[in-house]
Amino acid sequence: MLSLTATAVDAVRDATTVQDAPAEAGLRIVAEEVDGEFELELSVVDAPIEGDQVVEQDGVRVYLDATAAEALSDVELDAEAHDDHFHFAFNERS
Fold this sequence. Notes:
Structural class: alpha/beta
Strand order of the largest sheet: 3-2-5-4
CATH superfamily: HesB-like domain
Radius of gyration: 13 Å
Number of domains: 1
Low-confidence stretches: none
Shape: globular
CATH class: Mainly Beta
C-alpha cells in the first residue's frame, strides 16, 4: 500500500486544508497505463470516488483509483517544498 513521508503528509495537508474544504478532502491519484508505463494524475478532491482505495496517514487522505492502487502498492509518496508549492515524487520502498 502507498505510504507517505512526513513531508508528503505536510504537502497533502496544505493542499486539502483550505477554507470551506469538506472533512473528506484529499489528494486523488489516477493512473493510466500507456506503453507499459504509468502516467499519473494528481488532483485535490472533496471526497473519494466509489471504488477508490483510501490511504489515511497522520490525518490526511490520499485516494487511489484501482490502477493507481496496484501501480503504487510498494511506493512511498514524497514531496519537496519550493517557495509556495510542493513537487511530489514517488520512490520505491526498499
